[in-house]
Amino acid sequence: MKAQSLVHALRDTAYLDGIDVGAYLDLVREQHPQLYAELDFGRDGAQQALASLAQVFNEFETDDRDNGRGDSYRRAQQNIAVRMTGIRRLFELAGGVQDVRDLPPTWRILDLLAGDGLLTRALRVLAPQVRDGVISSDIARTMVTAALAAGLPAIRQDARFLFIRSTTMDAVILAYGSHHVPSDDRTTVFQEAARVLRPGGRFVVHDFEEGSPSARWFSEAVHRHSAAGHPYRHFTAEELRRGLGAAGLRGIRVHRVYDPFIMRAATREDAAGQLADYMHDMYGLCGLDRGDATRETVRARVWHLCEECFCFGPHDGGADHTDTWPRHPAVYRVGGQWVAEIPRIALVGVGEK
Ligand SMILES: C[S@@+](CC[C@H](N)C(=O)[O-])C[C@H]1O[C@@H](n2cnc3c(N)ncnc32)[C@H](O)[C@@H]1O
Question: Which residue intervals define the domain Methyltransferase type in the entry (predicted)?
């Protein structure tokens, strides 16, 4: 079937809640014409990919089911400042620039695990010249619906099969959840990312190193205390290098990037307490609410877990700014403000097409 007629045939296929493919295409044509020009629902395999999407309901949809944390996750992400340090560095690596403010205004980047568009909202603050350059892409209906409702260019698709034309993107980011892609499917995702990159474009893969304190948080805290658990394998540096190479990318580098959680507030108690709330909501740590725990008790439990997991040795990481970051969660004063900081080091691979 020709691509055009395939798209026509797919128009009635369910896509987002109450929105079929045709309604989605009409909305994007009207509100995000550049994204519309980059879409390709006529690719071979699109029909099957849409049928598979219809079966997906993951832990990031809602809090309503026994295994969900979607609503609380989105609530936490309303604060775009907490993870800004690491996000800024990812954009710089993706753009090949020293400073995010040097990114060109026409920059196009696809965020493959976008949630409800945190990275898009962050880039609007970090580099306002790149207006709506980030396309938010996610497999979860509610995440994509929330991004579209906020006026962001967004698409629902599995990172393993993209409804995006080849050689259209300056950069692709797979971040803050790459471990959710099963090990056997990671090469497919890397190859899809490479396909949509234009020559010279960069693919950035962010995750956490197997066996590191950053990965320990997921096995010791999230797996034990969230409703869905967290039975996912993280990455090794070698796996990142191999995957990027298998996708045909070159100039491959693996970085250790400082990627902390930081909360600022007027008092010590507020800074630490609000950061504990953020961690509780983002990771759905409902197991810590057991008994008739007060808000203060839950906050203390979250903070204690963070202290147990995010504990780095003097030589850990080789990350950016190695000399300045705290080796364990800390609350300190800067000027008139209190800062709560939970250190974390991400493993980040970059390859160029
Ligand atoms: C931890 S969230 C990250 C969201 C956002 N980037 C952030 O930093 O807050 C991971 C996201 O990846 C999405 N996801 C998981 N597997 C996916 C896949 N195979 N394709 C596309 N999205 C996927 C989930 O639905 C979820 O929204």
Answer: 110-205
